[in-house]
């Protein structure tokens, strides 16, 4: 029997992944888990506007309130690195970064938001 296999594994594996990496993984996981995700802050009027619009369209969405989440600031920096957008709301539909409040509103004005939400499965289409 060889005793070499019982030696402790390299110390490298014991290191925790860095916080930014974890936050980015978490952000990507959240985005992948829901058809519509709004990274938001509870006191932000622009976030409220986007959430109100989604509610008016009867679209289901997941709101992640960065001022409530314990790792909210890490998540916000991770989102900034990932999307290039530092501000909230940071809206994703079907895993795709849509942008902020203005982008989302402009998309709705242009008639592109509802089809995208429907395609994502966030808006229930009446079955014929």
Automatic annotation (TrEMBL):
Q: Which domain of life is it from?
A: Eukaryota
Q: Does the keyword Electron transport apply?
A: yes
Q: Where is this region: Disordered?
A: 1-20
Pfam families according to UniProt: Glutaredoxin
- NCBIfam families referenced in this protein's UniProt entry, alphabetically: GRX_euk (TIGR02180)
Q: Which organism is it from?
A: Oryza sativa subsp. japonica
Every Glutaredoxin domain range? 36-98
What InterPro entries does the entry give? GLR_AS, Glutaredoxin, Glutaredoxin_euk/vir, Glutaredoxin_subgr, Thioredoxin-like_sf
User: According to its UniProt record, which protein family does this protein belong to?
Assistant: Belongs to the glutaredoxin family. CPYC subfamily.
Q: What does this protein do?
A: Has a glutathione-disulfide oxidoreductase activity in the presence of NADPH and glutathione reductase. Reduces low molecular weight disulfides and proteins.
Listed name of the protein: Os02g0618100 protein
Q: Which UniProt keywords apply?
A: Disulfide bond, Electron transport, Redox-active center, Transport
């Amino acid at each position: 029997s060889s005793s070499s296999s019982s030696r402790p594994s390299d110390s490298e594996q014991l290191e925790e992944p860095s916080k930014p990496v974890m936050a980015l993984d978490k952000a990507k996981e959240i985005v992948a888990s829901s058809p519509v995700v709004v990274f938001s802050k509870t006191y932000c009027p622009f976030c409220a506007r986007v959430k109100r619009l989604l509610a008016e369209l009867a679209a289901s969405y997941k709101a992640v309130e960065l001022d409530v989440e314990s790792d909210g600031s890490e998540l916000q920096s991770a989102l900034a690195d990932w999307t290039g957008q530092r501000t909230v709301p940071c809206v994703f539909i079907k895993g795709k970064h849509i942008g902020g409040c203005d982008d989302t509103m402009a998309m709705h004005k242009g008639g592109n938001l509802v089809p995208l939400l429907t395609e994502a499965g966030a808006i229930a289409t009446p079955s014929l």
